[in-house]
Amino acid sequence: MKTYMKNVGAAVAFCIAASGSGLAQGADPAPTVATIVERGKLLCPSHNGSYRGFAEVDDKGVWRGLDIDLCHAMAAQILGDKDAVEFIPLSWAQRFPALQSGDIDVIIKLTEWTMSRDLELNLQYSRPYFLGGTQFAAKRNLGITSAKELEGATICGEAGTSTVRHAANYLEGLGLKYNLVQYEKQEEAQAAFDANRCDAFIGWGPNLAVFLTDAEGGLDANMILPELVNMGPQSIALRQGEDRMVDTANWMLTVLLAAEYYGVSSENVDDMRADPPNPQIARMLGVDPGLGDRLGLSNDWGYNMIKQVGNYAEIYDRNLGENSPYKLPRGINNLWNNGGVLFPFTID
Question: What is the pTM assigned to this prediction?
Answer without folding.
Answer: 0.83
